[in-house]
Design brief:
The protein is mostly helical. Helices cover 82% and strands 0% of the residues. It is rod-shaped, with a radius of gyration of 21 Å.
């Protein structure tokens, strides 16, 4: 990862050229963004794994605190439902970002 970041370091940025819409600056900026795309894609994939990994302990805690589905079932079912809804929405958002960057 460090080698990838080193090779895609941006040392050409100039705010004045950006505001003047300099053609060479725009080309270099898009080339920089193109080289940065694999890093963004990897970050999206890691974010998906992080959300799914995070959901497992939350669901386990909700199950354990309900004493196996006996105590305050509605509240713990809501925790589980919100967790699943958050994970599904975040995974779909990350997949849509992944697809949008790939186009």
């Amino acid at each position: 990862v460090i080698a990838l970041i080193y090779h895609i370091h941006r040392n050409h940025y100039d705010e004045e050229k950006q505001q003047n819409l300099d053609l060479e600056f725009i080309k270099m900026e898009w080339e920089y963004r193109y080289r940065l795309n694999p890093l963004h894609s990897m970050a999206n994939i890691l974010n998906i794994f992080a959300w799914t990994t995070f959901s497992i302990p939350v669901l386990q805690v909700a199950w354990l605190l309900s004493h196996g589905g006996v105590r305050k079932v509605g509240m713990h079912a809501a925790i589980a439902g919100f967790t699943i809804a958050a994970v599904v929405s975040e995974v779909l958002a990350q997949l849509m970002l992944f697809g949008a960057r790939g186009s």
